[in-house]
Amino acid sequence: DSYYLYDATTKELSTASLGEPRPVVVVKEVEAYKTHDTNTVVYAATEGAEPGKVSIKVRQRDKEHTIRNVTTSEKYLLDIARYEGDWYVVLGSQVDSRVYIYKNPVEQIQSDKKPEVLYALRLNKPISVSFSANAQFVLTQNGKAFHIYDLENVRSYRYSAKYPVDEPQSRAQWMDSNRLTYASGGKQVIFDYDNINRRELAPASATYLSAFDREYRYLYTFTQNDSGALVLSSTALRTQNDL
Prior knowledge:
The protein has one helix at residues 105-110, and strands spanning 2-7, 12-17, 24-27, 30-36, 40-45, 53-60, 63-71, 76-83, 86-93, 98-103, 117-122, 128-131, 137-142, 145-150, 155-160, 173-174, 179-184, 187-192, 199-203, 211-212, 218-224, 230-236. 2% of the residues lie in helices and 54% in strands. A hairpin with a 4-residue loop joins strand 9 (86-93) and strand 10 (98-103).
């Protein structure tokens, strides 16, 4: 029942709730943001930043902490998650072609230390970042180019995927904690985080995202028939003996 509200014209980030629906501005000059739980948000702001830079900050329980300054860009890459009890912040500017991973940066700042970069994902003009479903893997992507970091095993994987990404999709989605999926060549494809076990599944539209049921027994996809009508189909992912 609580919400963040972003005004793209004023670049103000506000909070509101069903009990207190009147928006309250919490941060100004915000260029991009990503939320986590009820009181944590990572955002890019020009306020207090030097010319040509933006400050990437984490706001937690009404306190703001500056993690890093990055180059001004049309797109900022931000995400935040918890894994095995630790906070991980991912941030970057598209023009820098780097995405930085920090482990417990707020804790470091509170101990009067400068946050240290855990790992830097390098990719030319990355368009997205995301955590896997269990937050073990961090992904940055641009088209077929992928760079992934494994937080648990301290390993990175950088590769060009076999499958091109059908438009108007822009990026892959995490199918679960280990696999990636998107539409390519008119079919839904899946593969492991390290680019193995590649599979082409059912016909799928890139305009309407596909979905898996909670237990991964069925894949639901949209396609268009000969008359142009939209068709929703389900495809069993297991044999009859497995159900």
